[in-house]
Design the sequence.
């Protein structure tokens, strides 16, 4: 698999007139090399590839990294070791991840390799990785299956008196017991007025009867992320709760119907945004409609008012409209979908009926 990805990267490098690519961001390292550790760098040329890590990951890198020269310097900075190895040829044009490399790191590689030209190729790796291989799609299906199953179990625990934090802990345990590597991200559990905060962190606040509860969570499987949101009601929903829920649901369904290759992320976002605005709640939907999923929880592509690139076959995205009203509460509904030739495949099977628990 790594050899296929190296081939794709080199094809893109040629198009961008790059002699080499310097990769240091953890998710991009894992994508191109298979390495899942926390310290490493890659230097990829049109003819060869080097992977550098430290002694702690010697055995791990030997097991995970294929089709690369593995170097494990002792007591040396990895970029210094790269210089001493001599793999960087004088005059080479080198791409780097400008969206991930700190100024200090950039300053260091510039000083180590003064005879080279460095070009910011932010998102180059992410755009390559956004088009999923079949094995990756299967990992996403499993992450979604675990996430759906966890929600089904969690419903049994949602009751008045339990705190947001305790519900978060129970959900994490459930996902791991069902086969998740770990939580995809810090789970959001927002009850009552906390639901007006799209990225609320769970607190000691107890859930109360009559409240809406928004749960944004996901299981990670083989490094790939599930990301689902469901909003439920503790007890019978009142007229306003049901109104807002139905608007969000219809906005999501309409946006899902609009997804297909060749449509821009901006256009899909507009479908949901325009519908919510037509119902008078446009000012309460302030974030993008969705984002790509990969080895990172937020990846290429985006469904947002500013994303004018076209969606591609076999990309995986979230679709998550919401309405958040300060002093009242909020509703968000989110699914994970694969972009197919004719539209999309929805990986998320959990019910979207408003559950009154």
Sequence:
């Amino acid at each position: 698999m790594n050899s296929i990805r190296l081939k794709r990267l080199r094809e893109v490098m040629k198009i961008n007139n790059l002699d080499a690519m310097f990769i240091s961001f953890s998710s991009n390292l894992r994508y191109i090399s298979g390495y899942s550790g926390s310290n490493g760098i890659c230097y990829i040329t049109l003819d060869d590839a080097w992977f550098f890590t430290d002694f702690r990951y010697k055995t791990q890198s030997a097991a995970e990294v294929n089709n690369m020269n593995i170097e494990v310097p002792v007591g040396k900075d990895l970029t210094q070791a790269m210089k001493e190895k001599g793999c960087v040829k004088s005059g080479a044009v080198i791409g780097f991840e400008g969206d991930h490399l700190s100024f200090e790191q950039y300053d260091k590689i510039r000083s180590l390799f003064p005879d080279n030209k460095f070009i910011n190729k932010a998102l180059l790796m992410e755009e390559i990785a956004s088009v999923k291989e079949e094995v990756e799609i299967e990992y996403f299906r499993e992450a979604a299956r675990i996430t759906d199953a966890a929600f089904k179990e969690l419903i049994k625990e949602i009751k008045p008196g339990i705190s947001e934090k305790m519900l978060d802990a129970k959900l994490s345990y459930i996902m791991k017991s069902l086969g998740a590597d770990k939580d995809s991200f810090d789970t959001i559990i927002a009850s009552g007025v906390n639901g007006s905060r799209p990225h609320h962190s769970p607190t000691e606040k107890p859930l109360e009867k009559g409240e809406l509860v928004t749960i944004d969570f996901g299981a990670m499987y083989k490094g790939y992320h599930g990301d689902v949101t469901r909003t439920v009601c503790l007890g019978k929903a009142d007229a306003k709760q049901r109104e807002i829920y139905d608007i969000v649901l219809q906005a999501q369904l309409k946006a899902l119907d609009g997804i297909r290759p060749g449509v821009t992320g901006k256009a899909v976002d507009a479908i949901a945004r325009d519908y919510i605005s037509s119902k008078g709640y446009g000012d309460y939907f302030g974030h993008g409609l969705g984002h790509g999923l990969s080895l990172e929880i937020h990846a290429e592509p985006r469904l947002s008012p500013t994303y004018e690139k076209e969606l591609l076959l076999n990309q995986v995205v979230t679709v998550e409209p919401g309405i958040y009203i300060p002093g009242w509460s909020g509703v968000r509904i989110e699914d994970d979908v694969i972009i197919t030739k004719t539209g999309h495949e929805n990986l998320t099977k959990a019910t979207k009926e408003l559950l009154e628990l």
